[in-house]
Amino acid sequence: MKRSLPRLYSALFAVLFTVIGSQSFAQNALTISSGETAGLAPETLSVLMDSDSGVQGFVLAITYDDSLLSVSDVEAGSATLSANAELVVPETLSGGFTLGVVVDATAPFDGQEIPAGAGLEIAAFTMTPLALVGAATDSAIAFSDGVLNNPPLSNLIVQGGQSVDASTGLELNDGLLTLLPPPPDSMRIENSDIQADGSGPARVLLSNSSGDAQGFVLSITHDPALLSLVDINLGSAAQSAGAELVVEELYSNGGTLGVVLDFETPFEGQTIAAGTDNHIASYVYASQIDLVEPDAPVQTALTFVDGQLGSPTLDNVIVVAGISLSPSLEDGTMTINPTPPPPVFDTAFYIGQRDFPETGTNGGSGFPGQEIEFCFFYSDPTDNIQGVQLAVCYDDLLLVDGTFSIEGSIADELGAEFVHYQIDNDDNDGDGRELVAGILMDALPPFENQQLPTTSEPLLIACVDAEVDGGAICGDSFSIDFCDGINGNGMVDINNMAVIEYQSIQNFTLIGADYEIIPVPAFLRGDCNTDTKVDLADAATVIATEFQGYDALCLDACDSNDDGIINLADSVYLLNFLFSFGNPTPDPGPYSSGVDPSEDALDCALPAACN
Fold first, then answer.
1. Rounded Cα–Cα distance for residues 193 and 336 (Å)
2. Helical H segments across 498-561, by residue range
């Protein structure tokens, strides 16, 4: 039990000094142990007792130089605790402390005592330096009679109900605490490494031999051509201490960190305990260079600097006992390691017309307002493909009407179980026109692992219906390209990717398509010789085209009856119109040119029809 009111001592004395005598005892002594401490590290000392008979209690009154030292944790020693002392009263005073102990102070008064013996620890206390010394300095820890407390106390022990003090033979041996200069504090940057395509931390470690650190400042530079500083984090020691003020600043060539551990009420005095290699911070760097094996690793310095970073500029310091100290500084390195070369895949994706596998021609032509179809193909002679991810961008001369279909493709034939797509035709959403699609071959039970087969020749996987802008100008062109990192109408950025053996494969060949705007297929029906008028010469041209191998410029114009076939009936139809008052040729004609309203295989475009 611990009490600090002076009146408690009266009760203590009443128990201790029931009989005051002057009998002298031999072989009784109190000794304060000596010790040493470096920097501001605390040191625990003991009071040892030699006694020739059992001791029922004692009083200690000890002084020290309070300009150099402070005391804490005044408590019963191991021998006192073993005796189950029932009254223990410590008192900390200016320049000293007292401790009163009665071993048997409460009912039923069993008569317990500290047995006779030598070197018995009856008390312990902790001394902490208040200042750093530049050379070894001895400071006395002394027994002092008649100085401390009110009424003043003297050092004594109680044996057989009799008090024994210095005047009656109690030997008092003072102690000595030697204060040593601290080993040098140090901060060092731990050597670290990262991959050329990644990032990672370099730890900053503090060895604070001077004492518990209340705060610190770091200022570290790097080579911005090789590294970028992406973050500064508290280290485990600073986190565990509960740092309350943390100020980090990142610059192109370095970064600073200022930390005060106890900055806010209730000011509980949190610190980083004195120790070696306390982790106080991590500077997180990302590589600024590309290195691929067999390139050699690149090592670059991480350097403590004073007076260069910050406004005002900062120095690397630690704070111990309210004093800013400049520790020794050990720079570190960051090694940038090359990444393994990417695996080479012979996968290829193509955009082309439906006849692309036969023609090998990407893109083609389209006239304003024409409905066109473009398709996706793949080839991979060595790997089966479990799924594909498509990301396509196209310009405002093309409108995708919302149709994306695997019908008639190898994906359809093998039963692709997941097909999803998004089409973005909005020119005002900031990312242009986009199409994203995903095809997963096996997505539903019973999970039979169907895959797209290996193939050296391009195989069709999907097609899209689109329309050429009606305001397009002849001679313009537009492209349909594979574009990584687009999101269609969604929020997830999609890259072109093949799933091979459950891995996302992206390093493969991507071939888009280019289209040229051609004239609208306008003509004058019946004008087989394309001289802009319908007459007898056109009937002759139809016959020559069919029977004599003549190469007419516009077969659709020769199809006088618009049945989609060039034959003798077209010449008869035309002669009947010209000379027998028969029906005029169907649109467009015979008097003004235009677009063929009929769907057939005879479309043609004449130069005069170009916008």
1. 6
2. 536-547, 555-558
Beta 332-337 vs 192-195: how paired, if at all? Answer: parallel
Can you tell me the distance from the alpha carbon of 371 to that of 547, in angstroms, rounded to the nearest whole number? 34
- What pLDDT does 123 receive? 98
Measured CA to CA, the distance from residue 472 to residue 467 in angstroms comes to 11
Mean pLDDT (10-residue bins), the chain, 611 residues: 44 44 63 93 95 96 97 97 96 96 92 95 96 90 96 95 94 96 91 96 95 96 98 97 96 97 93 95 97 96 97 95 91 97 86 90 83 94 96 91 90 96 87 93 93 96 92 88 91 93 91 88 87 92 92 91 93 94 89 82 62 49
Could you tell me if 218 and 187 are in contact, meaning their C-beta atoms sit under 8 angstroms apart? Answer: yes
Chain position carrying tokens 């999803």: 420
| Cα 592 to Cα 84, 323, 527, 566, 600, distances in angstroms | 124, 100, 11, 21, 20
- Distance, in Å, from the CA atom of 107 to the CA atom of 93, rounded to the nearest integer, reads 31
The pLDDT assigned to 12 comes to 52
Q: Which residues contact 270 (CB under 8 A, 6 or more apart)?
A: 241, 242, 243, 244, 261, 262
> Residue 346: CB partners within 8 Å, gap ≥ 6?
380, 381, 382, 383, 508, 509
How are strands ordered across the β-sheet holding 278-287? Answer: 227-234, 278-287, 199-207, 186-189, 328-330
| Look-up of token digits 């008092």 | 172
**Do 438 and 506 contact (CB within 8 A), yes or no?**
no
Cβ(436)–Cβ(493) below 8 Å: no
Please, are residues 203 and 236 in contact by the beta-carbon 8 Å criterion?
no
The dihedral formed by the CA atoms of 575, 578, 581 and 586, expressed in degrees to the nearest 10? 80
Show Cβ contacts of residue 161 under 8 Å, excluding neighbours closer than 6 positions.
18, 19, 56
Which domains are present in the chain? 7-180 (2.60.40.680), 186-337 (2.60.40.680), 348-517 (2.60.40.680), 522-609 (1.10.1330.10)
Q: What is residue 491's predicted lDDT score, i.e. its pLDDT?
A: 86
Residue 306's SS3 state is coil
Handedness of CA 211, 214, 219, 222 (dihedral sign): positive
Q: Scanning the structure block, which residue is given the tokens 């029931």?
A: 18
